[in-house]
Amino acid sequence: MLVCICKGVSDRRITEEIRRGACTVRQIQECCQAGTDCKSCVRQIRQMLTTHSHAHQPATDSP
């Protein structure tokens, strides 16, 4: 699914960049240009960053 229509960037591409270490909207913009034109997709990019960061946090043991 396209997240950034202006630059033709898919959710898969953004997810790939997050897995490679991108953790801010600016880093996503620098990697693949998503969110650099009309900026209507920035909210979705931010949501993807939040979702993926929570999914990849290591489990912690409670005392």
Automatic annotation (TrEMBL):
<comment type="similarity">
    <text>Belongs to the Bfd family.</text>
</comment>
<dbReference type="GO" id="GO:0051537">
    <property type="term" value="F:2 iron, 2 sulfur cluster binding"/>
</dbReference>
<keyword id="KW-0249">Electron transport</keyword>
<keyword id="KW-0479">Metal-binding</keyword>
<dbReference type="InterPro" id="IPR007419">
    <property type="entry name" value="BFD-like_2Fe2S-bd_dom"/>
</dbReference>
<dbReference type="InterPro" id="IPR041854">
    <property type="entry name" value="BFD-like_2Fe2S-bd_dom_sf"/>
</dbReference>
<dbReference type="Pfam" id="PF04324">
    <property type="entry name" value="Fer2_BFD"/>
</dbReference>
<dbReference type="InterPro" id="IPR052371">
    <property type="entry name" value="BFD-associated_ferredoxin"/>
</dbReference>
<keyword id="KW-0001">2Fe-2S</keyword>
<feature type="domain" description="BFD-like [2Fe-2S]-binding">
    <location>
        <begin position="2"/>
        <end position="49"/>
    </location>
</feature>
<keyword id="KW-0813">Transport</keyword>
<protein>
    <recommendedName>
        <fullName>Bacterioferritin-associated ferredoxin</fullName>
    </recommendedName>
</protein>
<dbReference type="GO" id="GO:0046872">
    <property type="term" value="F:metal ion binding"/>
</dbReference>
<keyword id="KW-0408">Iron</keyword>
<keyword id="KW-0411">Iron-sulfur</keyword>
